[in-house]
Amino acid sequence: MTISHRHVDNALNPAWRDAAVHLISSVSWDDTIPEDEAEKAIASVTNGTGYALRQLAPDSGVYYNETNPREPHWQWAFWGPNYARALSVKPKYDPDSLLWCQHCVGSESYEQQKNGSLCAAF
């Protein structure tokens, strides 16, 4: 965590500068449970626990390496008010959108297919 009240011009969600607590919630299961049960567990932590935490602290954020891949408001959660600027500079440094990952800046412009290929989202 980087607690600082000085303005720092970077992409880090400013919520990290004011954080007093880093809270992690999780759900686990073994690989013998049916897929639909695993999906229910994921939905519960995303739409139950995650929802409650977002209501409790709507201006907070998440740590990218410990996030729920189904985070519904990931642009805000990862970058907060910095997302728009990060998206605006992406074409300068990655004009062909070669740098892609789920929930990276600009990733909502593409949809990953089941075979792993990327297609433009419309």
TrEMBL record:
Task: Specify the protein name.
Answer: Berberine/berberine-like domain-containing protein
Gene Ontology molecular function: flavin adenine dinucleotide binding; oxidoreductase activity
Species of the source = Penicillium nalgiovense
Q: Which residues form the Berberine/berberine-like domain?
A: 62-103
User: TM segments?
Assistant: none
Against Gene3D superfamilies, the record matches this protein to: 3.30.465.10, 3.40.462.20
Pfam families the UniProt entry points to: BBE (PF08031)
Record-linked InterPro entries = BBE, FAD-bd_PCMH_sub2
The source's domain of life comes to Eukaryota
